[in-house]
Amino acid sequence: FYHHFRTQKPGRHILQICRAESCQSMGSEALEAHAKKCLNIDYHQTTSDQKITLEPVYCLGNCALSPAVMLDEEVYGRVTTKDLEDLVAEVAA
């Protein structure tokens, strides 16, 4: 539960990118770099409009569909950079 401990209020939406081995082998490092660039934040930070907080996670249990992300409570698999952009656009609107 320590990963839920925060010193600042999170954004309205929490975007977690899996960093476990399966997701890394399927491109999650490029996905996280793309997310950081698009959102203009790093892990454990929130966008300036307070809409999205970016967090690393170490296994979402979706290894067969790597790379995986979780947006709020919904897990997505085989996520591409385009998929990530679409998810972000959906909640940022």
Summarize the topology.
Layout: E1 13-18, H1 21-25, H2 28-39, E2 45-46, E3 52-57, E4 69-71, E5 74-76, H3 81-92
Parallel strand pairs: 1-3
Antiparallel strand pairs: 1-4, 2-3, 4-5
Describe the structure.
This protein is an alpha+beta fold. It has three helices and five strands. The chain is globular and about 35 Å long. The termini are far apart.
Largest sheet: 5 strands, mixed
Radius of gyration: 12 Å
**Overall average residue pLDDT:** 94
Outline type = globular
Distance between the termini: 30 Å
Strand line-up in the sheet with most strands: 2-3-1-4-5
The low-confidence runs, each spanning 5 or more residues with pLDDT under 50, are none
List the helices and strands in order.
EHHEEEEH
- Total strands: the figure is 5
Helix percentage: 25-40%
Note the main attributes of this structure.
about 90 residues; alpha+beta; five-stranded mixed sheet
Give a short summary of the structure.
The protein is an alpha+beta fold.
